[in-house]
Design brief:
This protein is mainly α and 315 residues long. The protein is built from twelve helices and no strands. 75% of the residues lie in helices and 0% in strands. Helix 3 runs antiparallel to helix 4 (93-114), helix 3 runs parallel beside helix 9 (214-236) and helix 10 crosses helix 11 (258-282). It starts with 11 loop residues before the first helix and ends with a helix.
Length: 315
C-alpha cells in the first residue's frame, strides 16, 4: 500500500515491473524511481516505528509507569538540541542525523550519571523510579528551553525545516542500515531479558531471591531504551504517540507477558508508522504533512478509547 499510493498512483502491474527493474539494478522508468523512493521511505518508517514502540515497552518497564514513553527522560530533547544547532549554525543536512544522535547519547550519559544510584535500586518500594523520572523531566525542561531559544532566533529560511524536524518527518528518507542494526540487536537482547522483566514487574521486592539482579536489569533497560530513542529521533525527528499507544494497545490485546509483548509491539509500531506516513503523503497530496501530526491525530482518540475500555474492565 505504501509503495502504490501517493500523489502519483501506481498500478500493480507498474509496481511489478518497477520491482523487477530495481532487482536488476537499473531503475529507468518513472514507476521504478517512485518505487525506490517510496520503498526507502516505508522501510525507514517501519524501523523507526518498531524502534519507538520497543523503546516505549522498555521505558514503561523501567519506570513502572504506564504513561512513560521514549521521550519522557529528555533523551529526545538532547537529540533536538543537537539537530537544531546544526540546522541553525551550519545548515549541512548530512550532519543533522549525526548531531541528533550525538545529542541524544550525551543526554543519556548525563542522565545515567545523575541517576546512577536510582538505577542501582533493588526494589519497587525504594522510590528510585520516581526520582529517575523527575530527573528526566528536569533535563527535558532544560533542553526545551534551549530549543525555544534557537527557534526564536532562527532565520525564516531555516525555521520551517527546524519545526518540521521537531514534529517528525520522513520526507528525506533514504536507505539506512544503522537503525536496522540497532533495532535488531536490542530486540534480540530484550527478548532474552523478557522473563526477567516479567519477574521484576510482578515480584520486584522479591526478585533478588528469584535470581534477578534488579539493579543490572534497570541499567540494561535504560541503555537499551536510550539507544533506541537516539536512533529513532536521529532518523525521523520526534514522532509522538507511537511509543505510548502501541505498547498499551498490544498489552490490551495480548496481555502483559513481555515474551510476546516485545515482538508484537515492535511489529505493530512499525506497521502503524508506515500507515501514518502513507496518510501523511496522500491526504492533501501533492502536499505532504509531517507524519508526527498524523500519529498524534490517530493516537489521541485511540488512547482515550483504550482508557475507556480499561475503566469498563475495572468496574
Amino acid at each position: 500500500m505504501a509503495c502504490v499510493t501517493g500523489s502519483v498512483s501506481l498500478s500493480f502491474s507498474e509496481l511489478f515491473h518497477g520491482l523487477l527493474e530495481l532487482l536488476n539494478g537499473k531503475p529507468s522508468t518513472l514507476a521504478a524511481t517512485l518505487l525506490e523512493l517510496r520503498l526507502s521511505r516505508a522501510m525507514l518508517g517501519f524501523v523507526t516505528g518498531a524502534t519507538l514502540a520497543l523503546a516505549g515497552v522498555l521505558m514503561q518497564a523501567l519506570l513502572r509507569n504506564p504513561l512513560a514513553d521514549p521521550y519522557v527522560l529528555g533523551i529526545s530533547g538532547g537529540a533536538s538540541v543537537g539537530a537544531l544547532t546544526v540546522m541553525l549554525l551550519i545548515g549541512m543536512s548530512w550532519l543533522v542525523d549525526l548531531a541528533a544522535f550525538g545529542g541524544a547519547i550525551a543526554v543519556a550519559a548525563l542522565l545515567f550519571l545523575l541517576a546512577y544510584r536510582d538505577l542501582r535500586g533493588s526494589g519497587s518500594s525504594d522510590g528510585s523510579a520516581p526520582l529517575l523520572l523527575l530527573t528526566g523531566v528536569i533535563v527535558q525542561a532544560g533542553c526545551g528551553a534551549v530549543i525555544t531559544l534557537m527557534l526564536s532566533i532562527a532565520p525564516d529560511s531555516r525555521l520551517r525545516g527546524m519545526v518540521f524536524w521537531m514534529i517528525g518527518d520522513l520526507s528525506n528518507a533514504d536507505a539506512r542500515v544503522f537503525p536496522w542494526v540497532i533495532w535488531i540487536v536490542v530486540l534480540l537482547f530484550a527478548l532474552r531479558m523478557a522473563r526477567a522483566i516479567n519477574v521484576a514487574a510482578m515480584h520486584a521486592d522479591n526478585a533478588m531471591t528469584l535470581g534477578i539482579n534488579i539493579g543490572k536489569l534497570r541499567q540494561a533497560l535504560f541503555f537499551c531504551a536510550a539507544l533506541l530513542t537516539a536512533s529513532a529521533v536521529s532518523s525521523a525527528g520526534s514522532i509522538g504517540f507511537v511509543g505510548l499507544i502501541i505498547p498499551h494497545a498490544c498489552r490490551f490485546a495480548w496481555g502483559a507477558d513481555h515474551r510476546l509483548l516485545i515482538p508484537a509491539a515492535s511489529l505493530a509500531g512499525g506497521s502503524f508508522l508506515v500507515l501514518a506516513d502513507t496518510l501523511a503523503r496522500t491526504v492533501v497530496a501533492p502536499q505532504q504533512l509531517p507524519v508526527g501530526v498524523i500519529t498524534a491525530m490517530i493516537g489521541v482518540p485511540l488512547f482515550l478509547l483504550q482508557l475507556h475500555q480499561l475503566r469498563k474492565q475495572v468496574r
